Amino acid sequence: MGSTARWRMLAVSGAALMTASTVAACGSDDGMQINVYYAPEENFQSVIDRCNEEANGRYEIVYRKLPRDADGQREQMVRRLAAGDTDLDILGLDVTWVPEFAEAKWLEEWTGQDKQQAEQDVLEGPLTTAEWNGKLYAATKNTNVQLLWYDDTVTPTPPKTWREMIDMAKQLKGEGKPYQVLFTGAQYEGLVVTYNTLVASYGGKILSDDGKSVVMDAGAVDALKLLKEVSSSGITDPSLTNAQEQQVQQGFESPDSKAAFELNWPYVYAAMQDGNPDRAKNFKWARYPGIDGPGRVTIGGYNLAVSAYSEHKPESFEAALCLRSAESQRYSAINDGVPPTIESVYAGDDKEFVEAYPMWETIVEELQDAAVRPLTVVYQNLSTITSKVLSPPQDIDPESTAAELRDQLQKALESKGVLP
Amino acid sequence: MSELANEPSTRSQTVESGPAVAAPPPRKGKAALSEGKKAERKLGLLLCAPAAIVMLAVTGWPIIYSVWLSLQRYDLRFPDQREFVWFENYAAVLSDGYWWTAFGVTAGLTVVSVVIELVLGMLLALAMHRTLVGRGLIRTVSLIPYGIVTVVAAFSWFYAWDSNTGYLSALFNAESPLTDRFSALAIIILAEVWKTTPFMALLLMAGLALVPDDLLKAASMDGATAWQRFTKVMLPVMKPAILVALLFRTLDAFRIFDNIFVLTKGANDTSSVSMQTYNNLIKGLNLGIGSTMSVLIFIAVAIIAFIFIKLFGASAPGNDPGGKR
Amino acid sequence: MSDTTFVYVPPSTEGKKSKAAASKLTGRKLRWTLVDIVILVYALVPVLWTLSLSFKTAETQTDKSFFPTEWTFQNYRDIFTTNEFIRALVNSIGIAIIATLIAVVLGTMAAYAIARLDFPGKQILVGVSLLIAMFPQVSLVSPLFEMERQLGLFDTWPGLILPYITFALPLAIYTLSAFFREIPWELEKAAKMDGATPAQAFRRVIAPLAAPGVFTTAILVFIFCWNDFLFAISLTSTEASRTVPAALSFFTGASQFEAPTGTISAAAVVITIPIIIFVLFFQRRIVAGLTSGAVKG
């Protein structure tokens, strides 16, 4: 019968598949593998290759690329750690995740020699993001701060404050010139970064210093007012609620761009050289605007931690140290545009560095008085709720939005609330 | 290709002949009756046991377990704080605005998309049933939305409406249709309707096949208009099929997840209850709250099913007295 | 498509005005052709759009044109050179086939009993499987996540196969019992009377009659397993068991800020191919299978 033959074929191919998959599963098992779970970064593989050479065959570092978006990265690691997965050795953690992962006992503490090396010459702001309860749980890999990017043919002198920027944008719009202020306004972590920067620039606070209670003071409310004003006075891109880093970057790069100002991470500099070489010539940067002077920007970036479930801890510490060594950080800054956390890498006499990374001085300045996002175990919940409550920014009603934030954040701190 | 074209309309006959065949086979002999009956019972139970065991193990036990979890404070990030809290989680969820927003969105999406699907599905069913041209072809292509992976279709709609890549967003000159709440909900409905209308149409077509042709002929000879024939002759005969289709689709739509996950991730108040449960569980690692939501969704679905069965009585499946199943 | 065998002859053409009738028929055909075109467009446009995106080059990905202006196979090359997609494809195929086989075997046993035998608890079994068919799957995600974590089934093939079997079983039982009810079982007896052994009677008479129904059910169950996303994304975390629908949503671009539109579309096209093949070759059976199980009562 034709159909029995078909069945047999199905069964055979099924069996073949199973064998194939088991074979694939236990492929290379000859040497020790150190798995690095890290966000996609274009040239990170070269850093790994160099560290593998240094390891000289004792182990092999393997780059396991996580999803692009921070939520996806966290979700994947968290799910595997919750299941006690021993495949994870080195974890690439966004700066906001260290408390949560440490509290859940998923991270190995850094001690002794390793700790000393991981702390050596590291800028203070980034270093605090790697600590929790006075212990070091990660080594800083790179930091990040947003800058103000502008076109010096449109605005020869960049604005220093949001007030100036808003006025300039309105005036430019009236004159029919590019005028838009682009920033990350979609409902995701990027909106929280923007809001946190505004709050810090007002000298306000969202949480108390110990991260245990909600403050939401006058500065936090003023920041809501400003966010609403910027979003609702016709000077942003109409698709602000869709704007993540990539949209913001493309909004300035595109040939028919109406943007005059862009608030974004330093990687956009390299991207602009490829994306729109013409406009790149006039693409300049300045400190992130603030209230009375320059703003206090939110620190981003990544830390490398060693999983508590790793079966190769000593090697993982060693590998992590190599991946974030001064040499590696310099390489990543030049090739991927991510700012180093080690102070000595910012060397004015390093010609190649200065050329590829001309905005380094502004970055260092911003890092001096940068704002760290609230350090708390439930950061993820806070962030999800904050971006939810603030969306869409043009609909913010400062007083009632602040009240809602207070209420929802408090619940989230107690992990009793519901995530939207 | 001939297999496609030669669509026999045997469905109606076989359905009608169903009960006759389903009648228990004649007994072998009077003496062996009780003996044979016993053996038959035993065989029946034996044959059903594996399926029943798997279904119960993978659904029954977890449901009980999730009720148990829902009564605890259990956040994987605070493993030391696990404790029994009775109904605190229920109070937290039921008093939360986000939950009710998601509930409203889910209910709204369900009603709107099922109504649209019913109308479009009926039209498609009529077309598939009566077309004079290319019947096999249209049946084949309308199976594509049914068979295609929901996530794949959702990505297609996502890229079509995304303001960076989309031909539809360009066509409608929409700036960011996926982040404005109402246009986003409309797109979710579009994706849902596109995918499931063919399924609805197939269920309805089966009902259509039950409508006797001579009855239609008689009606048209009596001067009934097409609309009268539809409402007076076809609809009554099709009622059971329509109800089954509605029940299936309503419960299916209520658990909408894939489309929302890809299209909006639930941003700007477009989250469904399934999406929210997933977020609390996987993103928030809060097993207590996540399980509470699971239980609440289960109850909601049970209520919907109950309403359907009460409202429409014995015509709902599973309630059929003939014992044919 | 030659469809002449199915021309529906409306009652009004019974009169002998064959010319008028013929032209009326052409008019009707024309109208139906229009309807057909609408349906074709409806069903195919989203599929063609994905196909088009998968052939667009990275630079033209954002040109918003429905058809590619520059063609490339690069996206396909990309997905087939990374382990990520190939592993997911192997997982998808393997998990769906195993789950289908088991569900069909168990379903066949149960459906045979339901269609042919009289035993207590039959109604309950039917009721329970109906309940499961309508069950909100997300309700199972929390407990299964926790249970599989403890049992070590999390992120393994069996961890997905089990829930797939469970949710496929009601579908299998319904479709199969509907098919089995149509089998003329008297033939089996007739064969035995002609001197065939029970095994021969089963193999020569019953199996050939039952095979189409079983095969159809297998297709429906396979489509169901192939389609799942919620379990795939909740109960897996690595390449060890992640299926394509879940892997798609984790695709990464070359860098953190580059969208993987092209590769997602290419992978989407690849996993649509089996569906297209099923639909092309087994349209009649799928339609029969879907309509038989549902319209009773």
Automatic annotation (TrEMBL), chain A:
The record's Gene3D superfamilies line, in alphabetical order, gives:
Periplasmic binding protein-like II (3.40.190.10)
Q: Which UniProt keywords apply?
A: Signal, Sugar transport, Transport
- Transmembrane annotation, as ranges: none
Whether Transport counts among this entry's keywords is yes
Give the matching Pfam families.
Answer: SBP_bac_1 (PF01547)
Any signal peptide, and if so, which residues?
A: 1-24
Give the protein family: Belongs to the bacterial solute-binding protein 1 family.
Q: What is this protein called?
A: Multiple sugar transport system substrate-binding protein
Please give the organism.
Answer: Actinophytocola algeriensis
From TrEMBL, chain B:
Q: Composition bias, kind Polar residues: at what positions?
A: 7-16
Q: Where in the cell is it found?
A: Cell membrane; Membrane
Q: How does it sit in the membrane?
A: Multi-pass membrane protein
* InterPro entries from the UniProt entry: MetI-like (IPR000515), MetI-like_sf (IPR035906), Sugar_ABC_transporter (IPR052730)
Disordered, as annotated region? 1-33
Q: Does the keyword Magnesium apply?
A: no
Task: Could you list this entry's UniProt keywords, alphabetically sorted.
Answer: Membrane, Sugar transport, Transmembrane, Transmembrane helix, Transport
Membrane-spanning residues: 43-68, 98-125, 137-161, 181-211, 285-309
Biological-process GO terms, alphabetical: transmembrane transport
Alphabetized Gene3D superfamilies for the sequence: MetI-like (1.10.3720.10)
Pfam families, A to Z: BPD_transp_1
The leader peptide range reads none
What range(s) does the ABC transmembrane type-1 domain occupy?
103-308
- Gene Ontology cellular component? plasma membrane
Its family remark reads:
Belongs to the binding-protein-dependent transport system permease family.
Protein's name according to its UniProt entry: Multiple sugar transport system permease protein
Q: Which organism is it from?
A: Actinophytocola algeriensis
Q: What is the lineage of its organism?
A: Bacteria, Bacillati, Actinomycetota, Actinomycetes, Pseudonocardiales
Automatic annotation (TrEMBL), chain C:
Q: What is its main location?
A: membrane
* Keywords, comma-separated and alphabetical: Cell membrane, Membrane, Sugar transport, Transmembrane, Transmembrane helix, Transport
The protein's name is Multiple sugar transport system permease protein
- What Pfam families does the database record attribute to this sequence? BPD_transp_1
Residue ranges of the ABC transmembrane type-1 domain? 89-282
The coiled-coil regions, if any, are none
Which Gene Ontology CC terms are recorded? plasma membrane
* GO terms for biological process, alphabetical: transmembrane transport
Q: Which organism is it from?
A: Actinophytocola algeriensis
